[in-house]
Structure formats: structure tokens, C-alpha cells
Design a protein that fits this description.
heterodimer, A: mainly alpha, about 70% helix, B: alpha/beta, Rossmann fold, globular
Amino acid sequence: MTKFVQVCLNGLTLGSLYALIALGYTLVYGVLRFINFAHSDVVTIGAWMAFVFCGLIGWLGTDSPIFAMPFILALSMAACALLGFTIERLAYRPLRRAPRLNVLITAIGVSLFLQNAGQLKWVFGTQPQAMPKLLSEQALFTIANVKVPVVDVVIVVLAFVLLVWLQYLVFRTRLGQAMRAVSFDERTAALMGINVDWVVSITFMIGSALAAAGGMMYGLRYGTLLQTADSVWVLLGLKAFVAAVVGGIGNVRGAVAGAFLIAFVEMFGAAYRSPQMRDVYVFGILIAVLILKPGGLLGKSTVEKV
Amino acid sequence: MNLTGWRSRRVRSVSSLALAVAALAAVSGCEQKRNTTGGGGGTATGTGTGGTVATGPILIGHYASMTGAEATFGQSTDQGIRLAIKERNAAIDAGTLKGRKITLSTLDDAGKPQDAGNAVTRLVTQEKVTALLGEVASGLSMVGGQIAQQYKVPMISPSSTNPQVTQIGDMVFRVCFLDDFQGMVMAKFAREELKAQKAAILFDQGQPYSKGLADYAEKAFKEMGGTVVTRQAYGSSDPDVSAQLSSIKEANPDVVFLPGYYTQAANIMRQARKLGITAPFVGGDGWDSDKLEEIGGDAVQGSYYSNHYSPEEDSPVVKNFVAKYKAEFGSLPDGLAALGYDAANLLFVALDKSPSLGGTDLAATIAGIKDFVGVTGTITIDPQRDASKSAVVVKVDKGRRVPVKRYAP
């Protein structure tokens, strides 16, 4: 029972992280119909930015004030929103009318650039660093003999709040309406007076800010930040991408559903079958979904696309 | 183009597969005048063609993880080697030592096998080093060792402990103890000092070092009457080990063997303490880095690991080395730095003694070294090209590495 509760908790936390990252893939795909392969590097940079900001303020030690976490989170999300805006403006916008393959290859180029620029001495360097302990590592409460650490609760709550906010933004605001319109038909949307460039920029900024939140929470939970080109980050981004595809890429609710499905299967497989095979379970689901329901679990036919 | 007899001998001796590569290397050798001076000069003395004794510096190569998750391994080793070279070259300048000066070429492998292969190939075929030093990680030494063996360039690994490393062939040596011994030390310490009855094992399935050490520790622990309650593996690029730790927590062991490298080990101990695992952790020399505490914080305090030496040991050789290293680099030398220093100095002894600088002669000379007094103990190269040395178990204690118990081989 203890183990079962523990695994559920792990799945819930990991699923929240995957969801935050998967949303970036799905939002951009929804609006522009292309896979932003540089998204996982924005996650990495979001985590490292949190580390850098903590260093600048002097919160690298253990005794940071209680408001440190939300403050650093806001800074990191803002920095990555700016980064997302810049990437879109400089790398993708000039290719808006180019064949989709060109944009895809450019995205891989941006990804390589970010990975390698991040390793420069005056950027983040190549040494692994310890993520500052902005949250207490003590247990907040205990269920069935399982300690629930503060950081896990914060991750789940934060992910939930951001997801509800995004849901509201996409389906209840004028901006969301514009995003859905651009997703539906870019030219007609432009004819109706929607500023397409602006909507695309905003989409990138939202996706990147969510990625930063995911990256920073990931750093807080696992404690170690590896260099920006490390395969840990690539794998994290890849699994979030799988979550978006499994849920039906372009679909906001699908990305969240896919993220939790992937995380629970991964965690239960690792705990009750074999931890060595965890990646196999994740990519196994992807293959199964692509064979049985190529559009993803929540399908492509819905009009809720962003 | 064929500058020396030495090179043409080498071309004949390599397999036909390597012929093309060697020919390419000979072409590039023309461009790299700097390096041919060293290698060619060595031949002149070796073949005894005349009274011309070469005086130019000898180039040795070092491949190491200067970046990546095991970056402090490469950086520490490199600093140890550089200190040894600096001392030797200064002694030659001052006239207190006869011999040729040494220059070092260090290439980064980022802790990845494919990069290690590229680095060693470049050092051997393009830079034409006389001998190689490296690596720390056993998996990378196996990659580099294959290439060194193929091109007949002697390689000394300062700190690869997996037995398979020197089994590659007669060109590959090491100056540290082996994992069968280290695993026994970990088991014995847990059994006798920590009075552990039940042990859990958690190892990195992607690292031959970690897997080998886990096997040896398990075997020794069982032979001493203990039981291994659970054996779990993690992947190198997998930060989440909560599933494995949940299983370990359920098994409720008295001690957890964690024979991985420091970044992952620290990360795992942090997660383990969060989950409420209170058993002490025991690791191997792969933990030896300041980063262990930087990343692990409070979670790693009071853990133990077996190591090659402790900077706090009360011996004149160690004290002298620690003082010189501190003056040069401003930090305490870890075990990797000490082994890099020892490996380089042992290589210098061989370079001075060897009848020629050809790979086969040099390897034979290294194989014959006996009773070399190093910082990490007295080194005698045995017929398996290994060194049999004692190990010390240290306790992690607020920035210090307190020596707890020393085990003789």
C-alpha cells in the first residue's frame, strides 16, 4: 500500500511536469502547425535561469525567504517568455511562408545553438550545479506512511493553476479566440482583422513561460542541474513531446491527459516491472497510439484546437 | 615524407585495416612539425644511429572528462598531471634532473565514449603522442585502451578500477587498485564497522565501473554472511530514481551500496533522504569530488566511500603533495588529482629508463617498474599490468574526508 501511494504521488508530480512542457509543443503546433524542437532547450534554460537569478540575489544557500520561490519563478518565466519571443522573431518568422521542412530544420538548428551556447563559460558552464533549495525538503504531510514533500505539492498545485488559467485564456478570452481563429485558418483570421504575428508571438511567449516553470520545478525536485547539452534534458523534452502526440497534438486538454498517462505508465512500470525499461513503456505507448488512433487520444477532429 | 625509421616500422606493424589511417596520419605528420620532433628524436637515441641525443620535449597525451557530469574527474586529474610536469621541467631547468622535458596535450571527451574514441585517435594519429594518460571512468578507458593497443602507444590509466581495462592488452596499465578489491573493502566495512546484516544495492547500468563494483560488493557481502535484500539499477541520463528507492525503502536494509559517480550519487542520496531512507550509504572512489557535497548537501553527510587516499593522511609524502598542490591550484587535491600526479611521475620514470621511445620498449619498461613511491602508496606493476595497493574508507563530514579505516590488499 505504501509503495502504491508512493508511486501514485510520483506519477502525479512527474505528470504535472510533463504537462507543463507538453503544452508548449501543443500550443505552437496548434497555431503554426510545426514542431518546435527547440522547446526542450527552453525548458533547460528556464531551469538554469532560476539558478542564475538565485545566484545574483544570493539565495544559493539554504536560508532563502519564503517568497523566494514565487519571485524566482516569475523572473525565470519572464526571461524565457522573452527568449521564446526572440526565437520566434529571429528564427521562425522569416520562414513563415517557407515550406514546413525548412522551419523544422531551423528549429533543430536553434536547439543545437541553445544547447551549445548554454555550455559557454560566461553563460551556464559545463559543470553540474546544485539547484538552490528554495523549498523545504521536509515532508508537508504523510499519507499511508508516505512522506509528501513540499516541492511535490507545489509542483502539482502550480501545474493545476497554470492549466486552469490556460484553459480560461484559450476558451474564454478575446486573445484565446484570436488564437483559435489563427489555428483554424490563418488567412481568414488575418482578413478578419486579427494581428497574426502578434498572436503567434504571444503563443510562443506563453509556451516558453510554461516551459520555464516546468524546468525550474524539475530542478527543484531532482536537485541537480546538468549542463545544457546533457541527454537528461533531451529525454525530458522528448517524453513531453510524446505526451503531446499521445494526447493529440494541437489539443490543450489532450496534452495534459497524455502527460499524466505517460507519467503513470512510466512510474508504475518502473516500480512494478523493471526500472531499466521505463523509456520502453513511454515510447511503447507512443507506438501503440500511433497505430490504433493516429490522431492521438483526444483526436484531431475536435474544434477545440488552439 | 617518411621522416624516421620508427614511423615506417609502425606502419608495417599495424593491421591492414589501420593502414589507411596510418598513411593519412603520416601525411598530416608533415604539417605537424612540432610533434614529429619529439617522436623522431626518440628514435635516434633508440636505434643508436649516432651521437645525436635528442633534447626536445616529449609530448604526452591526456584524454579526460573536462566537461560534463564527471567534469571534476578530468579537471582534477589534469591538474595533478600538470603539477608533476611542472616539477619535472623545473628540475631539468635547474640542472638537478637529467632527461627531456615534457609537454602535455589534453583533449576533452565530455564523459562520452564516442568523444573519448575521437580524442584518443586524434592524440595518437595526428598529435603523435609518445604515451597516453587517461581516463578516470572505466568505460572510457576501455574505449581509449583499444585504440592505444591498436597503435601500440602505451597508456596509463590513473584511476580506472574495472578489471577489464588492463585486460585489453600489453599497452594498457593502471596505477590504482581494482574493483574486486574495492568491492571487498566496501562489503567488509559495511559488515564489520557498520555491523550491517541486510544490504541494498543501487548501481548505474550504463557504467561498467558501477556494475562491476556492484557485483564484487554483492559477492563479498554474501561471502561474509550478509544478505542482499534488493538489487536495483538506474540509467545514467535518468534523474528520477523514486521507483528504485521505493523498493529499497520497502526492503528496509541496514546499508545501501551506491557504486556510481558523484553527480548521480549525490542526487540519489538527496531523493533517498526525502523519501525517508535512513540507512547509511556506502560508495566507491567514483564519489570523490567536492561536487558530491555541493549537490547532495546534508543528505550526503555521514556517508562512507572507499578511496585511494585521503588528504588528511599523516604521511610526509601526502603532506608534501597537498602543500604543493594547494600552492599551485588553491584547492585540496582529491584522489583523482593524486592519482594523476602518480601516473605522470611513474610515466616519467619509464621515459627516463626506456631504451627507446617506441611504444613496445616503453611499455616493457613500464611493466618492469617496482616499488615506485607515490602519493597514493607504493606502486609495483604486476604481470597483469595492474597495481596492488591499499584502500582507505573515508567519511563525508562537512567538507572533510575523514579517514576511518585503511585496508591492505
